[in-house]
Amino acid sequence: MGVSTSPWLTAQEAADRARCHRETIYDALHQDELKAGTGLCGRQRTAPKGAWLIHVDDLDAWVSGEASSRRMRRFDRR
Hints:
Elements: E1 8-9, H1 11-18, H2 22-34, E2 43-44, E3 52-55, H3 56-64
Helix pairs in contact: 1-2
C-alpha cells in the first residue's frame, strides 16, 4: 500500500498526525462548527453524518496553536 499524496486527511489520519485521539479531532471540528475560528477547520462530505476531511495545513495550524484569524478558511466561499 502506497503513501497518499492527497493534502486531505480523514479524522483518524489527522489524529495520528497530531498524536491525539480521534475524539479530540471530532471535538475540535464541532467546536469550529459552533463558532467559526475557535476549533479545527474541516468539512463533512455529506452532512450531518458524513465523513470529515481535514486539510493538512489547517491541522498543522491547529496543532501549533496558530491564531484562527491567520488560518485560511477554505470553505467560507461556497
